[in-house]
Amino acid sequence: FVKIGLIISLAKYIDINQETLNMPFTLIKVLIFAFLPVGLILLQPDAGTAMVFVFFIAAMLFIAGVKWKYIGMAFAVGIMSLPLIWLKLDVYQKNRILNFLDPETDALNSNYQAIQGKIAIGSGKILGRGLFEGTYTQYNYIPAKQTDFIFAVLVEELGFVGGLGLILLYFVMIQRFIKVARNSNDLFGSMMCVGIAAMFLFHIWENIGMTIGLMPITGIPLPFLSYGGTYQLTNLICVGIVLSIGLYREGLSFENR
Length: 257
Fold this sequence. Notes:
About 70% of the residues lie in helices and about 0% in strands. The protein has helices at about 1-15, 25-40, 45-65, 70-80, 80-90, 90-100, 110-125, 135-140, 150-185, 185-210, 230-245.
């Protein structure tokens, strides 16, 4: 739920400080406010969720018009801090990165989940094994199949066609979010749509990417498919916000209704 609160709050802050956003003092206040929850999440530790926050914060600030020199400075600081971040990672987090770099290592332990997921996806071929007929799914060869690796379940049973269909549906959803953002009458509504679209985009990219070996494994669920009560409720609230902004874009501005 903090994702929703931060997106709304950051969008309003950007709207209020639109003219002075690129002033160092204002930008520092924005970054402190935005990255406070990121720091708390990293203390859990939960690097995957923290990356979601960093991505949609960066997307909102970029679309709001932050100058390239600040973006370059942030990128440079991020690169220079990588050694320190590596030292702060837990063993399992380091293993996930090492397994991503060498997909065949430690096949029976830390890399077991990734390998089984890719085997399940490959076995689905074009049309899949059939709904509820997936061998790796039904015999529980895929750990966390109801949450993190739900995409592997879908592709094993519905094949490449099913996986591609899901990705196309996600593409249409994100495209509609962006369209609502562009048509919004005020910056506040537009920034909320941008933040929500970026949040969904990162979840989709990271979850599908980690199941097919394009991204390191993190505990990030797939929107509307992964099991989870509060996560699904958060997704629905976000869609409701975008629909509300889109519904009233031709009337009063969002903040004056």
